[in-house]
Amino acid sequence: MSPRTLAPCPASPNCVSTQTLDAGxxxxxxxYRKSRAEAKEALKEVIRSLPRMKLVEEDxxxxxxxxxxxxxxxxDDVEFLFDDETKTIHFRSASRTGYGDxxxxxxxxxxxxTLVGEKL
Length: 120
What we know:
With 120 residues, this protein is α+β, with helices and mostly antiparallel strands. It has a single domain, classed as TATA-Binding Protein (2-Layer Sandwich). It has 2 helices and 6 strands; from the N terminus they run ββαββββα. Strands 1, 2, 3, 4, 5 and 6 form a 6-stranded antiparallel beta sheet that branches. It starts with 14 loop residues before the first strand and ends with a helix.
């Protein structure tokens, strides 16, 4: 089975991904020191503390959440991919519709980075 990868970001500015070289969409991945299972649980705990985040898919190395905006009910897809060889959590956060997102996806992922901090 080939390793799962995250979809590339569209040309629109409403997406961030750790797996792109394009500066407008690029964001640094998270690193973890614990076991993958422990790191995944720590990340899930942080995500549970955020409003309107729903886990829609999970396997050993992957998490997929839907984040729904409060007012207009826009849905963003937030995906995490655990790479045990490099102890890296890659992620992608993207709006399903529209063009701009006023930086919402980047802000959310930097908030997750701050919250997860030393827990990994």
